[in-house]
């Protein structure tokens, strides 16, 4: 009996009772960033994986339980998680992580969001009036969020403020070096003309000077239609674009379909940590994105 | 800065001069040390400058961001003119129309042994407008939020507005507690709390129709507590006025029913997640009408309901958008003890156990399309010969139905559905075909699991 109780206690107790801060990250990139800065002082949990479309997540009981126990909720925001995060927050009964508290960090509020629009009409698809939420594809944005995150960690856990500060400084230095390495290697990509499945890559495009010509989705957020794909086929039948980009959670069929009919190379790029075998942390994420782009454009 | 340059210049000069002579080893190492010191000093300064630059960049970014907000702000203000509209609640409208074809008239549709209460039962034949849900919600302040769902409908040629939900929620309770008061869907069962626009079939399964008049909504207070565990464990209870089916007449000085519920859930790998729960509802009824509207059966007594429910959801890699499957089942058990009467039935003691269940599966093979199947059934003890010839008499065979549906959603805001039901729940078996649309505009809240 005692054994059974012990086992039960082990099952139901939060795994991170020893860690100082429980961090609930909506997306893997923010969990990875929190690990970089917080190290052993934080216990991170990512609500989604790189193989899941973060717009469409079920407000699962497991996620509610994690939000209930979280000290900090960090999410991309800009309505990326509007279909599920509010349900989690409503059911989790955790007043310390509600928007407006120190326990809530909206990552995209700390960067300059692109494509913000006052022209809000759902006939234009799944648009985000506050701007494009996929901010993690520009490493400069990650740096800005790192700065905000380490300040917020210090607010929540003042005793370890020095640890978060040094974690941040250490990460920032390594990150800065890495960025200049990536920028050097990706210089040849400037002007590359891309077609993307969804508008997931606008920040990468701005960073590396890529030119987005079209999307596989006729309307943002809705699956590619045959009619739209055949329009793209005739438009790009003589080339005119260099590479088709899609993400691991998107069905590869549309990209491959267009690729075989236009001879434009299709490449899957990890949108976040875990998207490919190689992208195991934030550094290898961008290593892989750039190597794959270089490979797809014949710049290896 | 200038002093450092002087220092550097002196050092450089020194090193040039010293190179001319045969410098001692110690001198060289001294010079090296000075150079190293200088270099590290410069490195530190450069790092410092870089940090300051980074902060300046960050500030510029913030300024940009603020500017960006300022740019969008006028757009928002334009709608309200005076800026007060910035505090408007989120507003959403959901249109749900249905058209049904029945092989026998739905007016004649009765489930023997289970006189239906409230709005339960088939919708009218032919084309109908259905209900339009108007939803408004917002935070009241830092400790409360409020929600209103009004149902707009046409009944007998007249427009009616019904307050479906109107509740205030305490959002700042400590230690995993949550509380809600006002009018709301009871937390019992699984389907009871689901808005009709998120149902997978156009109608509720038989046990919900028979035992809860589709859904138990009442005025009251609800308290929920979430255990601080990684396994989802939710416990809750409610005290309600007792004015709506299965209760009636606001018994016990206007606190005629209470409930308790417990829910558990978790994930199995990344592909699967589950939710299981049990609940109990104790409702007191005083003169509760059911069955025929013009000559209703009136029940006074206790209605006790217990439920057990299980939901399993699957999606490859947990990526819900492309492919997914939901399997759900609920078992409901009811005991009613009291007396029934009607214009043609003298008050007669009634003490009967009944139960019902449904099992359904909904599969999305490709984005936009879903197909589903459902079986639902009821069973009842014999109330006795006193009820022979009334709707309460037990049927020869247990009521059951088989339903199939296929729906298409252009986006998460629009859905068109076709449903077929083989109905073996009434006196005559029937086949029903239904078409339904569910379209929403405006703000749309996140759906629960």
Give descriptors for this structure.
heterodimer, A: about 300 residues, alpha/beta, Rossmann fold, 2 domains, 4-stranded parallel sheet, 8 strands, about 10% strand, B: about 450 residues, alpha+beta, Porin, about 20% helix, elongated
Tell me what portion of residues of chain A adopts beta-strand conformation: 5-15%
Identify the most extensive interface between protein chains. Answer: A-B, 61 and 60 residues
Separate helix tally of chain B: 4
Strand pairing plus helix content of chain B: what structural class? alpha+beta
- For the secondary structure, the number of strands of chain B is 16
What is the typical, i.e. mean, pLDDT of chain B? 86
Number of strands of chain A: 8
Give the N-to-C terminal Cα separation of chain B: 63 Å
Structural description of this entry:
The complex is a heterodimer of chains A (300) and B (449). Chain A is of the alpha/beta class. Chain A has 2 domains: 17-109 and 125-181, Rossmann fold (3-Layer(aba) Sandwich), CATH 3.40.50; 190-269, Rossmann fold, CATH 3.40.50. Chain A has 10 helices and 8 strands. Chain A has a 4-stranded parallel beta sheet, covered by helices on one side. Chain A has a 4-stranded parallel beta sheet with strand order 6-5-7-8, with helices on both faces. In chain A, helix 4 (85-91) links the parallel strand 3 and strand 4. In chain A, helix 3 packs across helix 4 (85-91) and helix 6 (161-185) runs parallel beside helix 10. The radius of gyration of chain A is 20 Å and the shape is globular. The N and C termini of chain A lie far apart (63 Å). The relative contact order of chain A is 0.12. The mean pLDDT of chain A is 90. Chain B is of the alpha+beta class and 449 residues long. Chain B has 2 domains: 2-80; 94-442, Porin (Beta Barrel), CATH 2.40.160. Chain B is 19% helix and 49% strand. Chain B is built from 4 helices and 16 strands. In chain B, a hairpin with a 5-residue loop joins strand 6 and strand 7 (232-240). In chain B, helix 1 packs antiparallel against helix 2 (25-80). The longest helix of chain B is centred in the first third of the chain and has 56 residues, at 25-80. Chain B is elongated. Mean pLDDT of chain B is 86; it is low at 11-23 and 64-81. The interface between A and B is large, with 61 and 60 residues.
